[in-house]
Amino acid sequence: MIKTLYKNFILKYPKIVFSFITIFMLIMINFTLKLEIDASAETLLLKGDKDLAFTRDISKKFVADNFLIIAYKSKKDDLLSEKNIQNIKELSNKIEKLKYIKSITSIVNVPLLQSPIKPIEKLLEKIPNLETKGIDKELVKKEFLTSPIYKQNLVSDDFTTTNIVINLIKDNNYFELIEKRDSLLKSNNKELLKIAEKNLKFYRDKLKIENHNLIVEIRSILSEFQKNHKDIKLYLGGTDMVADDMIEFIKNDLNTFGISIILLITIALYILLKEIKWIFIALFISTISIIITSGFLGLFGWEISAVSSNFISLQLIMNISLIVHLIIKYKELNILNKNETQYNLVLNTSMAMIKPSFFVVITTMAGFSSLILSGIVPITDFGLMMSLGITISFLLTFILFPTILLFFKKSIHIYKDVSFTQKIANFTYNHKKSILIVSIFIVIFSITGANKLKVENSFINYFKTDTQIYQGMKIIDQKLGGTTPLDIIITFKENDSVKDINIVDDTNDELLDEFESEFEETQEDKIQYWFTKTKLDKIKEIHNYLESIDEIGKVLSLETLSQIGKLLNNNQELDGLTWALLNKELPKEYKDIILSPYVNIEQNMVRISTRVIDSMPNLQRDKLINKINNDLKNMTNKNQEDYKVTNLLVIYNNMLQSLFSSQIQTIGITMFLLFSMFLILFRDIKIATIAMSANIIPVGVIFGFMGWMNIPLDMMTITIAAISMGIAVDDTIHYIHRYNQEMLIERNVKKAIFNAHKTIGTAMFYTSTIIVIGFSILVLSNFIPTIYFGILIMIAMIMAILADLLLLPVLLLIFNKK
Fold first, then answer.
1. Cα separation of 157 and 153, whole Å?
2. Own/partner pairs for 47-50, CB < 8 Å, 24+ apart?
3. For residue 675, what are the contacts with CB-CB under 8 A and spacing of at least 6?
4. Rounded distance, CA 273 to CA 283, Å?
5. CA–CA distance, 567 with 547 (Å, rounded to integer)
6. What was the pLDDT predicted at 583?
7. DSSP three-state, residue 644
């Protein structure tokens, strides 16, 4: 049937076929331009995660704005010098004029509660800040360095660095659209769900552009400001900034390394194949395949994320690998059939390679199928992207390769008796025991290294140490209280306040009566009675426990304000009346900083906010979360309070743990699928087992190398196993397919292996060399995941070709003697 299709259509009307595909490519370019990049936090979340839903719900119950941070570092002067104060004011004023900025919080305008220490009633009459006339700067400095609110948070311990917090206008519409989308996921109304997803994507894209423009504007202000003030250093930080920078790094890598990979592959193709014609054919077909694949992605609304940022490079090298196999086969048939016409050579080449290539595509897709089951949208999309790309590459290669070759005259090839791969065949045959012994050591290396693997996600380590984003995140992380948020939400059971009210307020009857008469039947009554000794003691206990953990930087809660209140209250604990007074009389701008983010009386909830020191060596996030959960279980009474550990650290850890466990399961499924494919293709359980053995080696080495080199499994690196298996299996199928053909002719294992090395082995060596050379350029990236990707792919390809040209023939010689 396929041969008939070639004869009656593809090879009969090559110009029409070529023109049709060219026109189709030009149409798809329009959709390719719509392909977008998204590296937002949304792309790193586990679908259906209950902790994610809880975190979003909590964000609505507490006053907590989204924000960016400027780390302001003074090289010479004291932070409280007039020069620095004016600098911070000037910088704040410039940024505050930008769109989407709600307010700026800095050392200039935060409330000063201990400069000097006053009774609370008197302090509330007028809370000073740094601009208050007659303020004592020595007291201010002491407060900043010792206050539970400000130390290692607003200022560093060495008093050279301070935070300028840019509070952004909260966009409730975005979260409402997410909630609407999520609620429709549970319904059967696909039409409404499609509309909701479209609206969410449109709005998110709008926010992404606005966020990028805002960050560009802020960076422009910071850059200009630093030019005029050489004695300070400014660093921008924050979740939105990290996401925006990741997008820019991905765009830069796509542009820079895409071109560089093509140049390197062009050079490699010329060195190995010696003819410009083959370079043109390989690059032309691959380019059309990538354009059409990208067009489909743009048409379907799929986006490139940090995970799938290398899909173009992967499709390029896999497509070229397929084309090189066809070129080598064409050359081989041309040498063996010198008098054959170009038409017959092209037809025979296509027919000889379409079966093994088809199984290569199917098994490679099986390798990427392990990603589709992860439950994490960008990883699932990456698996689908690669499956779609491989399919398109296969179809276009077997249509365009024979079609284009008919436009060229028949090539003349000189037969070379001894090739490099024949020397490898001789080495393999003469050193069987040595190869087996080395393979055993490699297996040991892989197993021991794999046991050292850890699942971690450190955003700070995604960037090189000399980049601005790394330096800014490190300063904020190590000097200003950490970067990754982790919250403890405590929900108190109803009305434990009744039994405690006498304990808390028994010394304030007169004041209490007076207060109640003024606020009778008002919200203040509930507020006053809410702040009981039981609640405050529990908050204090958990707050102090969290502060004792080395991995946690700054801890903020009601206990923070309570410690300051105690100083202002003659070293006496604050009672319910005073708490209610603070809640009522604190100016809103100060209340939103020191009180509202940590208590929601209506919901009977408190929030203890912490930040984890992301750059801490040997930080084990999953272990930390489990420790906190277990310890809080022992510290809380389920009859009186519930607790929940939440926020970004938990959400990302959930994603990683889910991904890791799903990968263990799905790699097993993938191996079963590959074995089934081998069994169907080769119809011999012994051959299928040998093929699987050779393919396990490259994947094992990847895990072993990562373990020994302390490269963590995260969202970026965990896809390497599927990619390695998908790529490595290609050469195994081509080799055994050719080996079986030679066995039918020679009836001798040794001769079959030598002939397979001489023919298909050459193509395998060429394709592996091209892939390794192409991906070597990725090590020059500033984005660490891209560097890891390049290194690991190179190792996978080197191990795959070694396994197929050394171990595979040895196993065939030993276990397939018949």
1. 9
2. 47/375, 47/376, 47/377, 48/375, 49/651, 49/654, 49/655
3. 688, 689, 692
4. 13
5. 20
6. 82
7. strand
Q: How far apart are CA 726 and CA 670, in angstroms?
A: 10
Question: How far, in Å, CA of 34 to CA of 210, rounded?
Answer: 18
- Integer-rounded Cα radius of gyration of the chain: 33
Q: Containing H/E element for 318?
A: helix 311-336
- Helix 720-746 / helix 648-682 crossing angle, nearest 10 deg: 10
Kindly report whether the global pTM for this prediction surpasses the value 0.90: no
Task: Judge whether 421 and 758 are in contact, CB under 8 Å.
Answer: yes
Which parts of the chain sit beneath pLDDT 50? 415, 417-418, 496-507, 511-512, 515-521
- Contact partners, residue 596, CB within 8 Å, separation at least 6: 62, 63
**Tokens (6 digits) for 344:** 């017959």
Region of 418 please: left (phi>0), alpha (psi -120 to 50) or beta: beta
CA 541 remoteness from chain centre: 36
Query: What share of residues in the chain are helix, strand, coil (percent, to 5)?
Result: 70, 10, 25
Give the residue carrying structure tokens 């023109």.
19
What is the DSSP track for 72-122? EEESSS-TTSHHHHHHHHHHHHHHHTSTTEEEEE-TTTS--SSTT---HHH
Contact criterion met (CB below 8 Å) for 153 and 479: no
Show Cβ contacts of residue 271 under 8 Å, excluding neighbours closer than 6 positions: none
d(CA 110, CA 131): 10
Structure tokens at 734: 């081509």
How far apart (Å, rounded) are the C-alpha atoms in residues 436 and 588? 74
What is the model's pLDDT at position 207? 84
Helix axes 420-430, 749-758, angle to 10 degrees: 150
Nearest to 34 by CA among 201, 283, 242: 201
CB 413 within 8 A of CB 336: no
- The beta strands (E) that lie in 493-604 are given as 552-556, 599-600
Alpha-carbon separation of residue 643 from 258, 441, 484, 530, 638 (angstroms) = 49, 49, 20, 18, 9
Contacts of 748 (CB under 8 A, 6+ apart): none
Q: How far apart, in whole angstroms, are the C-alpha atoms of residue 413 and residue 337?
A: 11
CA proximity to 364, closest of 394, 339, 337: 394
What pLDDT was estimated at residue 204? 81
Strand pairing class (232-237; 484-492): unpaired
Place of tokens 């071109």: 259
Other beta carbons less than 10 A from residue 792's beta carbon: 24
- CA distance linking residue 534 with residue 497, whole number of Å: 8
DSSP SS3 for 620:
coil
Give 753-783 pLDDT, tens digit per residue: 998 888 888 888 888 888 888 788 888 887 8
Tokens of 731: 């050469």
24-67 confidence digits (pLDDT tens): 999 999 888 887 776 555 555 656 667 777 887 888 888 766 88
Q: How far apart are CA 694 and CA 442, in angstroms?
A: 12
Q: Give the integer Cα–Cα distance in Å for 457 and 437.
A: 36
* Residue 470: per-residue pLDDT: 85
Bridge-partner residues for 105, per DSSP?
Answer: 165
How far apart are the C-alpha atoms of 283 and 268, rounded to whole Å? 12
Q: How far apart are CA 576 and CA 573, in angstroms?
A: 10
Confidence at residue 505, expressed as pLDDT on a 0 to 100 scale: 45
The whole-angstrom separation of Cα 290 and Cα 313 is 9
**Is the distance from CB of 352 to CB of 325 less than 8 angstroms?**
no
Cα–Cα distance for residue pair 114/101, rounded to 1 Å: 29
Long-range Cβ contact pairs of 507-514 (< 8 A, separation 24 or more): 507/575, 508/575, 508/577, 511/577, 512/577
| Residues 801/731, Cβ–Cβ less than 8 Å | yes
- Residue 611: helix, strand or coil by DSSP? strand
